[in-house]
Design a protein that fits this description.
single chain, elongated, alpha+beta, four-stranded antiparallel beta sheet, 4 helices, 126 residues
Length: 126
Amino acid sequence: MKLNKKQRDMLWGDSGPYSQANLIRQVRILDDRISRIFLVVEVDINPTTFEMVQKFRDNDKFKNNIIIQQLLDTAEYRGPSFGYVSVAFEREYKDEMVMWSAEAALKYSQENIIKMHKFVMNKILQ
C-alpha cells in the first residue's frame, strides 16, 4: 500500500501527532475546594493509523479485539495537532484499586496502539 505525502506526514512526519496513551489525574474543583479526583486514560491516535485501521476494522487482527473496536467507535477527531482521541478509562480515585485499574487500562491501551502501528507498517511495506 502506498501512502500519499499527506498520509505520510500525518503518520509520523513533521506535522502529524504521535499516537500515545496518557494517564491523567484530574482534580475537579467546586467553588473554593477540591471536590473529587478522577483518573483518566486517554488515547490519542495519529490520523493515518486511525483511518487505516478503521478501513480494515473487519480484518482478523481487529474484528474480535474489543478494545480496538471500542476505540474506533468512540474516538473523536480533534484536528491535525491531536489526531483521534478516545477515553479508555475514567473513574473516581477513591483508593489504590482505582490506580491499579487505571494502570491496567494504560497498559492495554499501549499494547493496542502498538498492534495498530504494526498493522499499518506491514500494510505500508506490502
